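Troubleshooting entry. The earlier prediction with cytidine-5'-triphosphate gave an output that would not parse, so I re-checked the input for stray whitespace and re-submitted. Clean input:
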Amino acid sequence: QISSVADEVGCSVYAVGGFVRDLLLHKKNLDVDIVVEGNAIDFARRFADQHACRVRAHEKFVTAVVIFDDGYKLDVASTRTEYYLEPGALPNVEEASIKLDLYRRDFTINTLALALNHDSYGELLDYFGAQRDLHDKAIRVLHNLSFVEDPTRMFRAVRFEQRLGFKLGMHTENLLRSAVEMDFVQRVGPLRLFNELTIILNEENPFPAISRLEELGLLACLCDQWRVDARVKESFRQAQKALHWHELLYTGSPVERWVVYFLCLSQPLSDDAMAAVCGKLSVPQRWQDILVGERCRVMKVFHRLERDQQKLAEYRPSEVSQRLKGIGDEMLLYAMARTHSDAVRLAVSQYLTQWRDVKPLLNGDDLIALGVDRGPRIGEVLALLRDARLDAEVSSRQDEVDFVRS
Ligand code: CTP
C-alpha cells in the first residue's frame, strides 16, 4: 500500500532506522519509521485518503503521524539534514537526500534504509557500513563530533550496547569518554536527560546498562551520589523479580518500571539529595511527590511491619490493609524488593492480590435505606463493612445488613 502511494506522489520512500536494524537482527520491532524524499505531509495525506486512518501533521518539521483506526501509528518524515549551532542544542534542519538523512543519524547500525517504491522494493541502502557493524556487533558513530553535537547519544550508545549485546567500537568509546570528561552532558536539557534515563530504566533488565553508565562516568553526570555497589545490584535483582511477579498478576494497572529502579538506585540518598536529583532531571511533579515525599513514610511503614514480622501471620487482613492503604504499586514493589522478611513479602502480596480491591456488597444508597445518616457517617460505615468483609466477619449481603443494624 505504501508502495502504491509512493509511486503516485512520485517520491522515493524508505523504511529506516531501528525497524530495519531489528529486521536484520530478526528482532521484533513494530515501530516503523518512514522517510520520504519529498514532502512527508503530502505523502501521509494521500495515504490517509486511501486508507482508514487520520493524519497529524507538523508543518514546521514537515513530518506527519499516520494514525490507524486501531491506534497504530506510523511516523513519516521528509529526508533532511541537521546541523548543530552549539553542542547539546536542538539542530537546525534542512531538506536533503536520503544519503544525507542517513548520515545525520547516531550510529552506523541505525543508518539502513529499505526502499518501498515498487520498482526498487526491498533494496537495502547501506552507505555507512551498517551491515558490517551488525555482523561485528559494534556500536560505532559516523563521525567524531557525534557525541558533542548530541550528548544524549552517549546514553543511547549504552542502551543499544546492552540491549543488543553489542560493544562500543574502540574509537567510539574513546570519543564517548572524552565527551564525558569535557562534561558535555551538562549541556543537555533536564527533560532530555530524564527521557534517556527512563528509557534505560524501562528496559527488561536495566542493571547491566546502569553498571556500564557508571563505568563510563555517565551515571555520575546524572547524580554524583549514585553508585552501583553490591547492595544496589541486589535491589535491582529483587526489583526485577517483584516486577515480573506483578506482571504475571495482570492487575490491569500498569506500573512505571523506571520508578521502581529509580528508587533502587537512590537507596542511599537522603531526602534532600533525592529532591536535588529529581529537580536536576525535571522528574514530573507527580512522581517527585512519590519519590521524595512518600519514600520516607512508606519505609517507616515497612520497618514497623518488619519489626512485627513474627506476629504478622496473626494480623487481621483489615489491619495490614490499613497500613498499606494508599501506597502506589511502584512503591510497594520497591519495598517488597528491599525487605528481607518473607512474612512482610507475603503480607504485601496478599494485600495486592486479594485484599486491596475488597468492597462491601452494600452501597451508600443501601445504607441510607437502612437508616444510616447521610454525610460522613456513610463513608465510615462502608469502611467498617469493608474491614468486616476482609476479616471474614460478614460474607453475604444479609450478613452486611445485620452488621449495619447491630
Ligand atoms: N536518532 C539520532 N540521535 C538521537 C535520537 C535518534 O540520530 N539522539 C536517530 C537514530 O538513528 C534512530 C532514529 O533517529 O534510528 C529514530 O530514533 P528512535 O526511534 O529513538 O530510535 P530507534 O533506533 O528506533 O530505537 P528504539 O529501537 O529504541 O525505538
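This one parsed fine. The chain has a mean pLDDT of 93.
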